[in-house]
Design goal:
With 544 residues, this protein is mostly beta strands. The longest helix has 8 residues.
Length: 544
Amino acid sequence: LAAGDVLSLALPGFATADEEGGPSDAFSVAWGVAAASSCLDDAPAGNVTSGDATWGSEVLTLWVPGAIPAYSRVAVNVSRGIKLPDLGLLGNQSNLALSANASGGSVTGVPVQCTAEVGSVLKTPQLRYSSLLYNETVSLTLSFQSFLDIDAGDAVVLYLPNFGVSSRVVANWSVYGYDIANVSEWRNVTTVENVTRLVNSSVIANATTCRVVVNQASEPVPVTRLVSVVAAKPVPFNRTAGPLAADWFTSSEGTLVLTLTAPFAVRVLRSYLVDGASQYQPRVVVRLFGVRLPTVGLEANASSVMLEIASADGVLKLGKTSVPYSAAVGSFKSVALDFAPRKTRVFVDLSISLRPTMDILRGEQILFKLPGFQANRSSLAGALQFDADSSVDSLHWNQTSETLAIVLARDIVGDFEDLSIVVPNKALALELPAYGLALDPGVRVSTDAVAGPVVDMFGVLTPAIGSFITSSIAFDPPRAGTAVAIALRLSVTMRLWPGDSVVLVLNGTCNAFCCNAAPCSFASQGSREFNSTMALTIAFDPPR
């Protein structure tokens, strides 16, 4: 190698710490003579020389600082702050490659022969929830394919921001993997040459031992014989354990820290630890019960949801690593509905106010389940003006499901914006339930927001609006112009308490003979009939 020659090291999945500067910034590395030791222990020793380097697009580029004789053993120390992949490295991982643009000869994409193993759960670690309803106690399922050995008693630690627990957390463990076992496979062959081909075929690929037995091999060929091939091959298995108690505490930052103790060993098949054979590595599935989702919601694939694996004596096997796949949990900090007038059997204005904790984008929907409501129009689209910011693109009412869908015309910024709209009574011709609204009338809110879906969230604030289901009135005696006893019968949807009152309004006519019973007035031309109203207040004690 000559001064100015360029070496390129492809490091897929690696990254640079943010504080280390931009990807194209040049920095210095130390070149030196490597000690004649294990490849994983080499370090520059003596006559250390500084050289230039850059980092970008997952490639480390090194400029040779001076002449290096052929077959020299050199070491380069890079103290740039390049980060290992979040999911670790396999030992001798083959996609790390070295290239050289050298005056003495170019080399392209030669795999690095010796790399250290860094604990990893390489195949799609993910966290799923049995429900996406915020603040609900759910079951969580953590799954990952392990490329590191886990011993019985090791701690698998989950970091869950703003999660909680109902009272205690239990876990069911399962591991799905392969053991090596001797497997006998039978094949028909006609010649000794075919036996040889069979031994070298994919039938016993990756075999560590092989024995071929041919009965009556001395007979003339071609004769079809049944051949038994015995090979050491992966055989599937699964193990389960549980329910097992999990330890937990909540950190000062509000993160739920769950420690799950492995009930059995999980072993990697190292003879199959090569590219293309990952299907043979064990998959761990842990299902947790008693965990409560966060009240503030959670974005999809949140980097703060983390996994860690340590030995029973506290030695890290996998440093704290973000779980790359986790579901979003949406939430609303406040949702309120109001109606004008607060009255049944009439068309009402609908006022909606809410604040989401996550972004809701243009074209996404907010849905309200409104049990018992009626509407005379099913869809409103086009240029609709329900608020000053023109937030609504269209409204859709489904009478069968009693659902009002609001399609947004603009993005709503999570935990920053309040959405406040008013749907006039003439827009949908919406009516309250004939029986009124109780304090919790079963109104629910949902959204299909990608940033955090919400499914049937309860706690929507609505006014309590009562209703008379039936009412009747009778007079005794039923004779005009006569003092009577009034019998009022009614059935209500709400409870009446001491001090509550029911007002009975009696509209009728009066003349000079009934003026003492109700207010009325007369013109000077003589007696005439005028409309009059009497308000009769009935107080209830005790409550009915």
